[in-house]
Amino acid sequence: MSTAMTSADGKRLRTSYFSVILSVSLVLFILGLLGILVMDAQKLSNYVKEHVQVTVFLHDDAAEPEVAALQELIKEAVFTKSVRYVSKQAALDSLRKDLGEDALGMLESNPLPASLDIKVKAEYAGADSLKKIKDALAGNQQLISEVTYKESEVEQISRNSRSLALGLLLFSAVLLLIAVALINNTIRLSLHSSRFVIKSMQLVGATRGFIRAPFIKRSFLHGMISGLLASGLLMVILYLIADRFPEIGQLSDFRAIALLMCGIIGLGVLISAVSTFFAVNKYLSLRTEELY
């Protein structure tokens, strides 16, 4: 009978451990998905910002060597991601493609100027930075007739980026609190069945540190296993996304993802250990009659 009871207790204990690891893994997996979303949202925001274009219109009498030197100077500027020269004929061909041959059929000459199309780096795509860039370029009146960019588009991108960042920050904070609460409650429930063992050890004279040690060691192991399971599941999801949607997969920074996986494992270990510490302390502080 004693053997049967021991076997039943061992099975119940293993089931409890499995449920803890599974629950913590799922919570960490959701946090990992949020982390990937945050990273890719930032990359997507930068991708959009780096497609903001500053157009520098050139004088018709600008000499080719001077234009080439200006293009090289802009290319070396800290704010430049790329710069492309558009000739008068290329500008006309592009307009003809957009409007159709008939719309431009009555033109006797090409009225469009040559230009330099500049795409700026994401950190310089704000309204203030672009205004400074515009003013600096417009100062070269010998070669440049006008500098333009879509100000309304820039303002819209800035507003959307701020809203997205704030929304993700608030959502991340709420989800993190929920995750901590879920993991904490799961671990407390799993330790509930060990409350008499904890109290018995205390009654025979064991110190609090001695009683806590095996539970915290086990929580470290469970947290690490949970983090590894969550990381493995995230890798599978990322592989499937990259395989099905290559353009989305390219947004992922694998070094950042590796750091995220380490963070998930560390978070799993930390939350499990801290929750176990306080849960054991709770049962140590209870009177014997309060255990029932």
Topology:
Blueprint: H1 2-49, E1 53-58, H2 64-75, E2 80-86, H3 88-99, E3 115-120, H4 127-138, E4 144-148, H5 151-192, H6 195-203, H7 208-244, H8 246-249, H9 254-285
Antiparallel strand pairs: 1-3, 1-4, 2-3
Overall mean pLDDT score? 80
**Count of helical stretches:** 9
Number of separate structural domains: 2
* End-to-end distance: 24 Å
Q: What structural category do the secondary elements indicate?
A: alpha+beta
Radius of gyration: 31 Å
Task: Determine the fraction of residues in helical runs and give it as a percent range.
Answer: over 70%
Structural summary, described in words:
This protein has 292 residues and is an alpha+beta fold. The chain folds into 2 domains: 2-47 and 157-291, no CATH class; 53-149, Alpha-Beta Plaits. The chain is built from 9 helices and 4 strands; from the N terminus they run H-E-H-E-H-E-H-E-H-H-H-H-H. Strands 2-3-1-4 form a 4-stranded antiparallel sheet. Helix 7 (208-244) packs antiparallel against helix 9 (254-285). The longest helix has 48 residues, at 2-49. The radius of gyration is 31 Å and the shape is rod-shaped.
Short structural description:
With 292 residues, the protein is an alpha+beta fold. It has helices at 2-49, 64-75, 88-99, 127-138, 151-192, 195-203, 208-244, 246-249, 254-285; strands at 53-58, 80-86, 115-120, 144-148. It starts with a helix and ends in a 7-residue tail after the last helix.
